[in-house]
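Hi support team,

I submitted a single chain yesterday and got back a structure, but I'm not sure I'm reading the token output correctly. Could someone confirm the output below corresponds to the sequence I sent? I've pasted both exactly as they appear in my results page.

Thanks,
R.
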Amino acid sequence: MYQMEETNPGNSIRSLFGRNLKRLRGIANKSQLNLALEAGLAHNFINDIENGKKWVSAITIQKLSMVLKAEPYQFFLSDSKWNNQGAEIFSVYLDDFSDSMDKMVKEYRNRYLPEAGEERTPKTPNG
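Hi R., thanks for writing in. Yes, this is the structure output for that exact sequence:
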């Protein structure tokens, strides 16, 4: 069975998870506070995870994955794997952004731009 060296804290699985959490949080453009709020976790807990001071449960990994739109395995990738995965991860966020923009444009057109030959007044929240 493989054992990590205890003498180098930078090699521990906890440190690796923390570095990858910080990396994924940066890709998602979220602060520690925003991530904590969206995941329903304490801000200082996110900080402790990123600094390798605390470990996480499977439920916490699931919460972080959902908020960061990441796969759970990405928290455990070695640094060398990130060089090959960066573009793939960015494309996921780009696709999500593109979908959101398409939805916003459609909503705007439906509310404010009249169809050909039809006059439309802007809809108000009250109807």
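A quick pointer for reading it: The first helix runs from residue 13 to 27. Let us know if anything else looks off.

Best,
Support desk
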